[in-house]
Write the structure tokens for this entry.
Amino acid sequence: MMRAAVLKEPGRFEIEERPIPKPGRGEILIRIARVGICGTDLHIFNGHYAAESLPMVPGHEFTGTVAALGAGVDGPEVGTKAVVDMNIGCGRCYWCRRNEILNCPGMQQMGITVDGAFADYMTVPARLVIPAPEHVPFEVLALTEPLSCVVRAARKAQVTFGQSALVIGAGPIGNLHVQLLRTIGVAPIIVTDLSPDRVRMALDCGADIGVSDPGQLRQAVMEATDGRGADLVIESVGNPALYAAALRLVRRGGHLAAFGLTGPDETLALPILDTILQENSVKGSVAGMGQDMHDALTLLVHGRLKTEPFTRASFALDDIQAAFDTLGDRPGDLKTQIVMSE
């Protein structure tokens, strides 16, 4: 038997005993080691997202070891550390062939539409398992999935060295955006957040300019970009007012990366004529998949990002309710992880 944290209804977890699943044909059984709590998990916990999936075992930012192979699977070996792509597409449709799995008509997501990783074991499609080096700690490997989301956003924005960027929001994902942009060679990197502590952490992790007073943001951006506005603006909060502000802070011919999730009915008034004449672009991106996961793992393996701010807060599975209940009271913890095994 194994333990699983089941979100029975918004705001309420229960720990259940369940049989350890057996991997079917083409599947691998993973013994879960660490699971990060994502902003999406918090939306689910608060009843703002995927309510139709409850009761469910959430959790999709996970790592562990290969525990068993199903029929037709010839590797990786049992005991291998691994990370897993959470996005399950059909593998055959137009969108899957283009690595645009979120648009697959049959797409499922571990921990969002089907049971996820807040459990001792789970079975996953073998084709989504990515072996990881033994020497990389589990707490670092658990950052692969969130980092892959940031990798995909940068890829979609076609960001390159020497460009300027404004990151709106200095939470966990905003901080990863900052770090990846610095790795790419973006300069200057401006970050803004209402929390001075999170702005300070972003500066420690590679931002050049930090702004916690919204009234000073426009002046800071314009001064840093010779009055043009930022080449790239990333909205990583999910607030329509901040999306509107982003449009005013991107330069002519610049790019807005729409990343922060809003409510399903929230909209943005796009100035169509200005967008056309200024050749601005807006592109959405939210989840990493396929090669994005491999690239994120490579960056973590080779130490390209500062991971310590993301790995210092952890809770046991039995304390998962407390971990979620106190998340908003711990802004200094960029990431909270649930420890399943060592």
Summary: The domain at 150-284 is CATH 3.40.50.720 (Rossmann fold). The chain has twelve helices and 17 strands. The radius of gyration is 20 Å.
